[in-house]
Design goal:
Helix content is 51%, strand content 28%. It has two helices and three strands. The chain starts with a helix and ends with a helix.
């Protein structure tokens, strides 16, 4: 009984994760393009937490080749506004 319940829960998690994947991929591509327009290269963007609040932990390569990571608070839904995130990142990196 416990095994069946565990497998069902894993199936629901996999389904939820797979339904977010297209949104995540689209967001990553848009963020990458937005940062490139500002002279930065996106290395990684991951959701994390700081003081219990959700943040984007973004690592970018600067034009001089240095790698820098910044934490940006998540506003609204995580994958909805790559332009705002790119503006915040470029402001923090400039």
């Amino acid at each position: 009984m416990w095994v069946a319940g565990g497998l069902a829960a894993l199936g629901l998690l996999a389904l939820a994760g797979s339904s977010r994947e297209p949104a995540r991929r689209s967001f990553d591509n848009a963020l990458r393009d937005e940062l490139r327009e500002r002279g930065f290269r996106l290395v990684s963007a991951e959701l994390g937490r700081r003081h219990g609040a959700p943040v984007w932990v973004v690592t970018s390569e600067l034009p001089d080749g240095r790698m820098v990571s910044v934490d940006v608070p998540v506003e609204g839904q995580p994958y909805e506004n790559p332009r705002r995130l790119a503006l915040e990142i470029s402001g923090a990196l400039s």
